[in-house]
Amino acid sequence: MSTQTELEILSPGAFASLQDGGRRGHRRIGVPWAGVLDRRLMRIANALAGRSEDAALIECFDGGLHVTASGGAVKIAVAGDAVVEVEGTEGRRQLAAWRSVTLADGDQLRIRKLEGGRIAMVAVVGLDLPAVMGSASTYVRAGLGGVDGRALAAGTRLALASDADPWGSDHVLTQPPAADSGPIRLVPGPQDDHFSPAALEALVGGEYRVTTEADRMGIRLEGAKLEHVGAAEIVSDATVPGSIQVPGAGQPIVLLADAQTAGGYPKIATVIGADLGRLAALRPGQALRFAAVGAAEGGRIARAVEAETRALIASIRALPPDGIDLMALYTGNLVDGVVHALGAEYRPLY
Questions:
Q1: Which DSSP category does 49 fall into?
Q2: How many angstroms separate the CA atoms of 39 and 141, rounded?
Q3: Structural domain boundaries of the chain?
Q4: 249-264: per-residue pLDDT in tens?
Q5: pLDDT (tens digit per residue) in 20-52
Q6: Phi/psi at 346 (5° precision)
Q7: Residue 184: which H helix or E strand, with range?
Q8: Are 284 and 212 in contact (CB under 8 A)?
Q9: Angle ∠(201,186,178) on CA atoms, nearest 5
Q10: To which H or E segment does residue 275 belong?
Q11: Sheet bearing 82-88, strands edge to edge
Q12: Cis amide leading into 241 (omega within 30)
């Protein structure tokens, strides 16, 4: 009798859902893109697992995700600045992120916490979900995609393809992406004329903080008030991820993947796509600054970021069967606190 191999969710942590590249082409009928908040992380995680770059995976927030292999071995890969722990028959061990690993039947993997940002991606070999309107992405508000349109919960079982091979070589990203603490770049408009001349200067000249109202739909910021010229509302108009809406109170809201497709607040600016992942990863309380660029410069930045992403993926390499990255050991600075054995301060006193 055959046994179905599954990945069971023991705990979703703060929040976890199944996402892919997004549900494109339906915004005109009110269906958001959904999809991952950070496409680079998705592409790296899937590349580490040997899957197509847009394949569905688990997106999780703020650590706490806890999974186990059931009915057979499961290969998974983690992308993100995560503290990862694997527990099996040989005990518990910490595992570097930015790599894949094979869990034997009954082995468990936890993402204890995220050292940087608040998003990690977990790719699973053999995860094959039905597409809804062209995507497997979970959009909870409308019950689309994923597992019955819901976020992942304890007890959720993800059935894996019977022909999935979990025993191939594991892979590692040799050099994770460098942290970028620079300003979040935006293009003014499309309704910047609905604001006072000082409003855009305040937006790009001051510091804002992420409030506790931050999720997959958007991020509400707190900082300098942005003054409207005339009414603080407009006839409902199209929005996109990255749109910066400003309600009457003057505090900006940046829309993300699950945001509505139209809204009645004027949009002072739009965050460029290349910086949306960085913005989405900011935790409540973190500070940020904006910088204005033109549309052409935004396109140039997008091309540069794409080239960097391709270079990162090209640097992924196979690990030896024992899973030890000898190159990292040889090139890392492993020696600390060296002393001179013959130095006067270390000679015997008698």
A1: T
A2: 21
A3: 6-177, 184-304
A4: 999 999 999 999 999 9
A5: 999 999 999 999 999 999 999 999 999 999 999
A6: -110, 5
A7: strand 184-188
A8: yes
A9: 120
A10: helix 273-280
A11: 91-95, 82-88, 108-114, 65-70, 6-12, 157-159
A12: no
> In angstroms, rounded to a whole number, what is the distance separating the alpha carbons of residues 35 and 142?
14
Q: Which residues contact 62 (CB under 8 A, 6 or more apart)?
A: 13, 14, 15, 113, 114, 118, 283
Sole residue written with tokens 């940020």 = 288
Amino acid code (one letter) for 225: K
CATH number for the domain whose boundaries are 184-304: 2.40.100.10
Residues in the chain: 350
Q: Which two tokens stand for residue 177?
A: 């992406």
pTM, 2 dp? 0.90
CB contact set of 106 (below 8 Å; sequence gap of 6+): 68, 69, 70, 88, 89
What's the rounded Cα separation, in Å, for the pair 202 and 215? Answer: 25
Look at 293 and 330; give whichever has higher pLDDT. Answer: 293
Contact at 8 Å (CB) between 77 and 171? yes
Alpha carbons 164 and 3: distance in angstroms, whole number: 13
Q: Which two tokens stand for residue 28?
A: 């005109």
Instruction: List the one residue out of 215, 283, 66, 77 whose CA is nearest residue 153.
Output: 66
Q: What is the tens place of the pLDDT at every residue in 78-95?
A: 999 999 999 998 899 999
Spatial contact of 123 and 46, defined as CB atoms under 8 Å apart: yes
